[in-house]
Amino acid sequence: MSSRPSTYIMEWLSKSLAVLYGLEEILYSGRTRYQKVDIVRTKDYGLALVLDGLLQSAEIDEFIYHESLVHPVMLTHPNPREVLVIGGGEGATIREVERYGGVESITMVDLDGELIDIVREKLPSWSQGAFEDRRLKLVISEGRSFLESQPDESYDVIIMDATDPVEWGPAAKLYTKEFYSTAYRKLKRDGLLVTQASSLSHSLRTYLSIIRTLGEVFPKTCGYSVYVKSFASIWGFAVGSKAGLPSELSGGEVEERIRDRGVRGLKFYSGRIHEALFSLTEALTRNWGAETLILTDEKIESGIQL
Fold this sequence. Notes:
- By secondary structure, this protein is α/β, with parallel strands linked by helices.
- Helix content is 31%, strand content 30%.
- It has two domains: 7-58, Roll (Spermidine Synthase, Chain: A, domain 2); 62-301, Vaccinia Virus protein VP39 (Rossmann fold, 3-Layer(aba) Sandwich), CATH 3.40.50.150.
- It is built from ten helices and twelve strands.
- The strands form two sheets. A seven-stranded mixed beta sheet has the order 8-7-6-9-10-12-11, with helices on both faces.
- The longest helix is centred in the C-terminal third of the chain and has 18 residues, at 271-288.
């Protein structure tokens, strides 16, 4: 019988539910200008990146999260060439975008340049050389102010991999109607935006509110989700589109586009998985339900409880 770990991280999943992660080793512990950073080896999930005490990515299933975030919108767009990623400091989001040979330009904007330096040194297997791709432009800046400064109709796809919209949190204003209105203007005619949208299991109101807020701006929206073991949760994603939606694609169409676009190296996502992402989510939200609200800058500034 194996011994129990002597060190644990306790993470609160909601105001009434917490989990303990048993640690085998602490590889790095420090603080950037913006957040506390820990890189640890967990007994159950392997290597993990922990920010401000919250597990962000784990070796066992980071690819499930990142493939689910990136590929539905990338395959829905008829020909994505200009892609913007906001957040995603560990480099796995851009890693997935770079699987598309037709993409000409990838702009990654992240507030915390120190974090990027840390994970490039300590977790190179996450990015797999993505930061060296010649198509990548790395910008150390706040995502909203950067996007506001860009010309209209600059991007085919915008991928939001920021932290949750916790009240008073640094990313809260990346989930408001005002931000989505800016993003809408910066997208080209067939443009899509996808954002991570928190936990269906523990913060369903947040997930549904993000979709509702997107619907105030975009003519088409949808949501989907996937189980992420290291998050101890079913994790949600939300899409706003000017044209097509991932939910309109069949599994067969997804497989055909994966082949036609030469997307290789996927470990999780496929046509069958694509259909399951939407089927599962529709069933869960139909049965669970929650009160929703439209997220605005004013509500965030007033400290709205999500």
